[in-house]
Specification:
The protein is of the alpha/beta class. It is about 40% helix and about 15% strand. It has helices at about 10, 15-25, 50-55, 70-85, 95-105, 120-130, 145-150, 175-185, 235-250, 255-265, 265-285, 305-310, 325-335, 365-370, 385-400; strands spanning about 1-5, 25-30, 90, 110-115, 135-140, 155-165, 190, 210-215, 230, 290-295, 315-320, 340, 350, 375-380. Bound molecules: pyridoxal-5'-phosphate.
Amino acid sequence: MKRTTGQDRSITRHWRPATQAVRGGTWRSEQGETSEAIFVTSGYCYDDAETVAARFRGEDPGMYYSRTQNPSVQMLEERIALMEGAEACRAQASGMAAMTAALLSQLSQGDHIVAARAAFGSCRWLVDSLFPRFGITSTTIDARDNAAWEAAIQPNTKVFFFETPANPTLDLVDMEFVCGLARSRGITTVVDNAFCTSALQRPLDFGADVVAYSATKLMDGQGRVLAGAVCGSEAFIKDKLLPFQRNTGPTLAPFNAWVVMKGLETLDLRARHQAATALDLGRFMQDRVPIILHPSLPSHPQHDLAQRQMPGGVTIFSFVLDGGAAQAHAVLDSLELIDISNNVGDSRSLMAHPASTTHYAIGADVRAEMGVSDGMLRLSVGLEDVQDLIEDLDQALQKAGL
Ligand SMILES: Cc1ncc(COP(=O)(O)O)c(C=O)c1O
């Protein structure tokens, strides 16, 4: 195995993200295959005993067990790191494996975390339910409010954790301010960038320390596999994340890594196209629904920030109906093209009712605190013709009395 012809690191590092998404981190075997090989192996064999001993000592870079090293997975990791502008990346078995590893690998008993209150349900569960069992305390805040971040800092605060945009409220965090504040206080920022990916927003450019992903979403982009990734400095990945991953085992399967790599080849095209369609749909929807949560629309209170952080837009938006869960379900049940699905980032447009699905388990009180109302619907925009999507939304809204 070798890196592809001409892939001198001093040249490839300068390629732009869309080029990295197709070319970055490619290795080829002596067969010279164009598409990356899938290495379905759990272990490796060695010419002699000293070779493997040196690998375990960290003196030989070769692989010794697929829980921590696999060529297909490593290609994906290099590619994501290059796209993200990160020194290093480790792939994970799912997005939640990535969030858990990114946080627990650096938090200990007695530490404190400040987290955005609006977040994916399982991310809130980590903060509210899992961490307290290990003596890690938290403060959850309105992450749109810069002053709230500063006010929540305690002497033992180790991490700021947030999604931007958040699922499903589409709240944004001012990364330049919040990451700068964290850095000045010796706090690490962990940003969940699942809704954008590096195609639409690169948190490290705004001062973030760690970027964590559900690669299940836009990176795969076709609803096939669960996958995750954590990007950061060489030191963070080597000293914090890797020991956690090696010993707890949230490893990505080689086949799933390969599927995500194939997805990345079209990520830039898909993300930009889906975001453009999402903007057209937002313009159509804003006159039909009482509240639309779409940062790319000028009516959104954080529109200026959206333009600075993610000028390419976003492929997902939410809206709120006055008729509560009954009216939201009526819209879902009237859809003819868009699927009812709680996944996002697929090439198919998908609509979900967060209060009864992704955010059901966190309970009504936390939903109310984060602004997830019973009348909220979230639309993940796919690759269908925009006119067909508008016609489907139009007829579904009409049937639901809108
Ligand atoms: C913002 C966000 N983070 C994390 C996750 C978890 O990802 P996964 O389903 O790949 O574990 C999701 C899933 O919907 C998500 O939307």
